[in-house]
Every structure is written in C-alpha cells, then in structure tokens.
Write a structure and sequence with these properties.
about 160 residues; Sufe protein. Chain: A; 4 helices; globular
Length: about 160
C-alpha cells in the first residue's frame, strides 16, 4: 500500500471502488456464441455468477460477467472481467492464484499485478465472506479447465 494516504482514506477509496463495480458492473452484456459458459453458485449465501468467455490462440479475447448477489461477489466478478481480457490463459491462472492467496492469507502483501483487486483485500479478514470474493475466480478457473478439455460449459458450487 502507498504511504501517502492514511488507512481510513484507503478504506473509503476501496469501499467506493467496490460499490462502483457493484452498481455499474463492467462487461455485463452477455457474449453471443461464447466459447465457454461457466456458472458459479454459493448455496450458503445465494451468490450467483455467469461468465461467458471467448478465446483465441491461448488468450482470453472477451468475457461477459453476470449474476446476482452481494456487493463483494459482484464487484469481484466485475473487476475480474476487466483484468483478464487480452491476457494469456497462463497469466490469468497466475492472477487467479495470486488473488486466491490474497483472500486466504490476510497478512500477505498483494502483488501490483492485482491492481484494483487490492480493494478486496480486507475481505480476507472475514472468512465467511471470502467465498463471496472468490466465487467468480473459481468459476473462471473451471471455465479455463473446460476450455482445455474441449468442453463448453462449466458449473461451480462453493
């Protein structure tokens, strides 16, 4: 974290970023004829996500994100949708691994590559909410696995 702003100002910035992505999710328009459709569901809280992914030469070329649930699950999916477009599958996997580590180890320092996802770092302090933040990422990982196996649909239940 930057040394320039006191912690409360960071908290406010992060809160605003999460609420902005929740209220105005990015890449919401469903992709027609997506290469993979991946759905995730958390039965404990009712969060749902749907990812539609397009690929070309080992790169995520487009993604759409939809769903319903708490601000954390929806903001995480929206931020993720912005970050993975144009990235190689290997880079997306690395980013997912780094994000999941940040969510499960509250003491870890998030790498700069996570960008706006750092706004969700505080969720790691509330174990019951971690699945909210990681649902879209686990759904993405399953979608990538399906792509490699030649499948077109993936389902995740947290």
């Amino acid at each position: 974290m930057s040394q320039h702003l006191p912690e409360p100002e960071f908290d406010e910035l992060y809160r605003e970023l999460i609420l902005d992505h929740y209220r105005n999710p990015r890449h919401k328009e469903p992709l027609a004829d997506a290469d993979v459709v991946a759905e995730g569901y958390n039965p404990l809280c009712g969060d749902e996500v749907e990812l539609r992914l397009d690929f070309n030469n080992g790169t995520v070329t487009d993604v759409s994100f939809g769903g319903r649930g708490c601000s954390i699950s929806q903001a995480s999916g929206s931020i993720m949708s912005e970050m993975v477009i144009g990235k190689s599958i290997a880079n997306v996997r690395k980013m997912s691994e780094q994000f999941n580590k940040m969510m499960t180890d509250p003491e870890s320092e998030p790498p700069e590559e996570l960008g706006d996802l750092e706004a969700l770092q505080g969720v790691a302090k509330f174990p019951v909410r971690v699945k909210c933040a990681t649902l879209a990422w686990h759904t993405l990982e399953e979608g990538l696995r399906q792509r490699e196996e030649g499948g077109h649909e993936a389902h995740v239940e947290e």
